[in-house]
Amino acid sequence: MKQYQHPTADQFSLTCVLHALSDPVRLNYVQCLATLTCEQPCGAIATPVAKSTMSHHLRVLREAGIIRIRTEGTHSLTSLRWDELEARFPGVFTSVLKAVDKNVLVEEE
Amino acid sequence: MKQYQHPTADQFSLTCVLHALSDPVRLNYVQCLATLTCEQPCGAIATPVAKSTMSHHLRVLREAGIIRIRTEGTHSLTSLRWDELEARFPGVFTSVLKAVDKNVLVEEE
């Protein structure tokens, strides 16, 4: 079973978090995850990019500490680390999600 | 006299703003500008990068709408567009500045 590495909250870097959120596809994915509130299979959220590209995006989000990925059987399940992000950088993640203008998030690739 | 182009507030893009703030040198510069509060000559804030590199960073910040640059005589003066950013993406810029951990902003290059 694949084990994913995650930074601890004290390893979060503000610039890494901002970089991870600065891509429209990643920001859209995170917003959908926030709307759904519970843990989701990685493929459950429709994205406009190829699976391999999305794997890269998920890695960037995971390594920044924005999402947690765990395996259960043959599935990879994804959840936001919202509480940890909010504790580490108060207001940043929440205000970014509030500011997301769906019209800004163009479909790419 | 060089004229700089600036996006209007309704042209600001959230992902461009996040990208502009996701670099340690740029984030450090913006934080210094916020501390100084008033308009500053572009070279007044010490940065750990070459002048040409800083010109690139200033362009990224200007094109994202984070700073305004105007020329006065032989000087270029820089100021934050904080109020416009706050109006367009409430809480984002302010919470990022509050979250800046000086220890995270390593000197680069």
Automatic annotation (TrEMBL), chains A, B:
Spans through the membrane: none
Annotated SUPFAM superfamilies: Winged helix' DNA-binding domain
Keyword tRNA processing attributed: no
Keyword Transcription (UniProt): yes
Stretches assigned to the HTH arsR-type domain: 6-100
Keyword annotations of the record: DNA-binding, Transcription, Transcription regulation
Gene3D superfamilies documented for this protein: Winged helix-like DNA-binding domain superfamily/Winged helix DNA-binding domain
Name listed for the protein in its UniProt record: ArsR/SmtB family transcription factor
